[in-house]
Amino acid sequence: AQKITQTQPGMFVQEKEAVTLDCTYDTSDPSYGLFWYKQPSSGEMIFLIYQGSYDQQNATEGRYSLNFQKARKSANLVISASQLGDSAMYFCAMREGYGGSQGNLIFGKGTKLSVKP
Amino acid sequence: DAGVIQSPRHEVTEMGQEVTLRCKPISGHDYLFWYRQTMMRGLELLIYFNNNVPIDDSGMPEDRFSAKMPNASFSTLKIQPSEPRDSAVYFCASSFGGTSTDTQYFGPGTRLTVL
Which chain A residues are within 8 Å of B56, Cβ to Cβ? Predict the structure, then answer.
């Protein structure tokens, strides 16, 4: 079973509008971290935002926020006021805290976001 | 502060040749990761180090792949001999700490093409 599922291969959003990118995860570990990365066409992986499994509040970083619903095992990324430069691939990833392979990130397949002017 | 540095950024080689990819992690980070990205398999972990010691190399595809970290500021990923199916983008990432709260920062990647 996939540990990270991103069900939207591609999405379009109008410039200046908000957009939500979906991510669901699967883990039995009580301690885990959820991360979102952006990969523009230039190829680098840029860290955007982090949410810990014990965090009581949803994470926010500028125009990025994370809609964390622990019971549903979802960690959706919300981008407010979309800009043309937001066009990129977005990856959801999880890092488990204890047991198994502690160190690595497990990535979803990504969502390609296109912002229309 | 400098981020993770990788070299070369692009590598084109012929099947059977040896390829060496290099990585300099962020200073002070004690974890270093090598990932591979392909269209078919997405992003997958190859190997990671903690304090220069390999911890998990279960993702290394086969004996043709090897990785070393001789000191805290340098790591190499070597493919010998290279094959066309090794064509991919190879990322190095580093983090301070190995728990679920620790963010991994990625280098710009090396795009490898094996002809």
Answer: 101, 103-104
Q: To which residue do tokens 């002070």 refer?
A: B28
pLDDT value at residue B94: 95
Q: Are B24 and B87 in contact (CB under 8 A)?
A: no
Nearest residue in chain A measured CA to CA from B109: A44
CA A117 to chain CA centroid, nearest Å? 23
Reply yes or no on whether the pLDDT at A100 is more than 60. no
Q: What is the DSSP string of A11-46?
A: EEEETTS-EEE--EE----SSEEEEEEEE-TT---E
Residue with token string 């009580």: A30
Rounded Cα distance, B22 and B17, in Å? 16
Residue A81: predicted pLDDT = 96
* Two structure tokens written together for B86: 């090794």
The position carrying tokens 């911890």 is B55
List of chain B residues whose C-beta atoms are within 8 Å of the C-beta of residue A31 = 99-100
Whether A91 contacts chain B with CB within 8 A: yes
pLDDT digits over A1-37, tens only?
679 999 999 999 999 999 999 999 999 888 899 999 9
